[in-house]
Amino acid sequence: MASAQSEFGVADILDGLPDRLHHTMARGVAETPDHPALVEDAKSWSYRELSVNVGLIAAALRDLGIRPGDRMMIVSENSIALVGFLLAASTVDAWAIVVNPRLSPRELDQIRDHSGARRMFFSAGVSAEAANHARRVGADIGNVGPLENIGIGQLNETTIPEPVESDRAKQVAVLIYTSGTTGTPKGVMLTHENLLFSARTTGLLRRVDNRDKLYVVLPISHIVGVSLLLLTLMAGGTVRLVSKYDPPALAKAIAEEGITILNGVPATYQRLLEYKTLAGIPKLETGSLRYIGVAGAPLDPDLKSRVEAELGLPLLNGYGITECAPGISGVRMNAPRADSAVGKLMPGVEGRIVDRDGKPVANGTVGELHVRGRNVMRGYYRAPDLTEKAIDGDGWFNTGDLASLDGDCMFIVGRTKEMIIRSGFNVYPAEIEAVLSLHDDVVQSAVVGRAADGNEEVVAFVQLLQGSKTTPSDLMEFAGKQLTSYKRPSQIIVLDALPATSTGKILKHKLAESLRES
């Protein structure tokens, strides 16, 4: 499978591509300086204000000891403050680590320690969770340039900055942490070119321009949110920032705010339809909406058809992963599909589907998907062994996902890894199992995914010490204190013994089968 045939090629994507993330606002500043760039509930910044304020934040970061090559953590929900920090980090050539404040203290501290972050910044005025973390680490509350009520963490005097590269293909812009299959965090190093190339490609395919207003509710602490932000700024459009998903608020924004593009995970749309039914609304108003996209989890064809009937637009499915910044494939606007296909490869992305021996499989045969392109990450931070396993000498990245082709259209049929995708977030069983095993009464545990209404639930099977009085509710409470909400099991099932081979390896497929049968 070579690179996909497309309306444009790599040269078109690279033409005028910015060198750094903060250069994405240059077009809007030059052509439409008074046009709104960022909008949140209570305030907005025009492109002129965005440019001036990012400069002020960058100066404040320098005064706070942030050096080129430093890693800096931004603990924040989607907000103007978050975007200001992200673009200012680019201005000073620091690596931005945007972190969801709903992570537990344990998860946050793991990222801080592994990255060697120079400082942590918390949007305390935007997020109660961020404010709680700020208090926990003893952060001072103050202003960073025009940003008010910011938690400013202590300076890490011992950390060493990374070398700065002038080449956008080498300089890391963002470090996104995903929990590895071992349960420990992996830092995905995404360069300026990785992010900008992928975002520009998506923007061109969706024909985004300065008349568009994107509803960005997918978190910018994850790769899709970053990409949506960048593609909108490059086009001179407006980013409508939403900190937490609320279906009534989404319905109102579509009807009244001129939203033109909506991206979500299947659960985004599922909950919107549930709200419509419960509220007794005959038909949702679609306003200026012209494009609806979905990715991040398997798409149920029934949900797809119901969404399309309600909103009057094709729900276009796509596929990507953090390590690919994220775009790999997508259903095209001019060729919508009624099935759950994830479409053709993105322009500039090569793909191949191979068997266990690494040999290409025939069209229609399931195999492991490998991809190559300018969107593929630089590697995993401080983990050269993991990088070497993931990316071969010719630049092919092993996605770990199972795929098949129907002509040039791709289907994702499963995952070779055990990863569970819940509401668009990656959940790794090993991390949850590691937390459960910390409980004194837990002998062993196994975590699997279960399909549920266009989403996946996390189900944990646990074997307890003989005679233990611990209940599933006790374990839920125990795990809940150490895991963020989307990682917490929906159900914990206690068994006398977990099915295992003679060598003691737990047979997870049998547990998954038992869920399907029940």
How does this structure look, described?
The chain has 518 residues and is α/β, with parallel strands linked by helices. The radius of gyration is 23 Å and the shape is globular. It folds into 2 domains: 10-404, Rossmann fold (3-Layer(aba) Sandwich); 420-517, ANL, C-terminal domain (GMP Synthetase, Chain A, domain 3, 2-Layer Sandwich). The chain has a 9-stranded mixed beta sheet with strand order 2-1-11-10-12-13-14-15-16. The longest helix has 17 residues, at 47-63. Helix 3 (47-63) packs across helix 4 (80-91), helix 7 (192-205) packs across helix 8 (223-235) and helix 10 packs across helix 11.
Protein topology:
Elements: H1 10-14, H2 26-31, E1 36-39, E2 44-46, H3 47-63, E3 71-75, H4 80-91, E4 95-99, H5 105-115, E5 119-122, H6 128-136, E6 140-144, E7 147-152, E8 172-179, E9 185-191, H7 192-205, E10 213-216, H8 223-235, E11 238-241, H9 247-256, E12 261-264, H10 266-278, E13 291-294, H11 301-311, E14 315-320, E15 327-330, E16 344-345, E17 349-354, E18 367-373, E19 379-380, H12 384-390, E20 397-406, E21 409-415, E22 420-422, E23 425-427, H13 429-436, E24 442-452, E25 455-464, H14 472-480, E26 491-495, H15 508-517
Parallel strand pairs: 1-11, 3-4, 3-5, 10-11, 10-12, 12-13, 13-14, 25-26
Antiparallel strand pairs: 1-2, 5-7, 6-7, 8-9, 9-19, 14-15, 15-16, 17-18, 18-20, 20-21, 22-23, 24-25
Helix pairs in contact: 3-4, 7-8, 9-10, 10-11
